[in-house]
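TL;DR need structure tokens for one chain.
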Amino acid sequence: MKFGKSEESKSYRMIFPAGEEATIGQRRRALWFSLAVGLITIGFIPVSGIERVNFPEFLAAYQTAKIAAYFIAAYLILSLYRANHSLSSLYLFGGCLYAGAVLLVQSLGFPFLIEALPVVAGRPQSTIWLWSFWHAAIPISIALYALSEWIRPGYVVVRPERTAGWFAVAIVLLIAGSIAAATVFHEWMPTLEVDGDIRNLYWVGVGPGLLGLSAAALLLLWRATGFHSLLQVWLGVALVALLFDNVITVIGGHRLSVGWYVGRIDALISAVVILLICLDEINRAYLKTASKVKRLATANALLEAKVDQAGLDFLTGLPGRALFVERVRSLRARNIGNGTIVAVLVIDLDGFKQVNDTQGHERGDEVLVQTADVLRSTLRDTDIAARFGGDEFVVCLFAPFSVVQSTMINIAARIVAGVGQLGNGIGCSIGISLCIADRLNLQAGLQQADKAMYQAKKLGKNRFAIYGQPYYSEAA
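>> reply
TL;DR here they are.
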């Protein structure tokens, strides 16, 4: 088994809240909750010895809730381990899995719950020993978690799947051994219960041992972690609840005493606290990840905008040749297979050279910017315009076959009219080529549109012509 401090561990602590420091308010709420559990439990001590309070429905609901809580917590902690590969997470997973499994077997020992399974039922010491085993498992697992965080903070398992597999095998063997000790070999175990009386828990030393174990785990957790994170704070609360469970159960002295019932409630609180803090870890991790995804999407959008901007013509703000080709390919990919027609328009200004030579380059630049504005105001949101250099502009539009002819003629006519209104003898000649989106060869389309553009110039300029068709516009 190899360990190491890796970038994976660092990235985990950036995403998951387990390594984040708990706030003063969060620590204060946990402290008040622990005090409430302790004070309420202590308040029941005077009446804890009242016996023969039989509520079978309570025990059935209690066992079911606690078993579910530990199994779900084990699953959630295993999910965290798969993300962080932290050995400390495995210890918590093992404790919850062990507790859930032993509690499940312990339930078979209550005749009014399941009468058909005599493996545990009928063995007078089985249920009390199974109770003792799982009560020891939780503080032991938390103590191992604390030791791991103390000795090797931030270290992760190098072979996570293999380690988890061997760890699971060890837990299963431990569960099997515990069940065998409490059932098959129960006669060799010290007597803890006689006709419901469980005071032997104290005299045999099991009760004080469990108390000492919970207290030692709580002290170790504080010493090792300082209750740094919210997870560690509420693991401490779970230990406090379990500690008071042991106290009131031993004081009650009988399986169906008031103290015994209060102890069951404390034990359930301990299990539910572990479950809820695991759910909170997952929820806060999800929210934090969603926030990071949102910020990443925003950053990607800004990056794409910068990339697009890098491909823009510095004068007109229109895409250059490379960006134009990229956008056409992207739009074509979204229109493959639906019969969409592509129209490519090559636009060349008429009279531009004379304006540039007689009125200067500044006026020429103004004409180019104004032409780009004409294109922006004329084209649809889905159309793509670009400046290829000099006074040559290109437009690509996608439209259904039924409307492509009318759409491109309308756009071309509006461009010719808009450019013609710039004055100083400026106009434009437009050549148009058509192709099915599935078969689009942009280079060939540009060449055909270029030929049609020269045809429009030969016909008198300030008009447009369609490649391969006799149709062309009248001069404006």
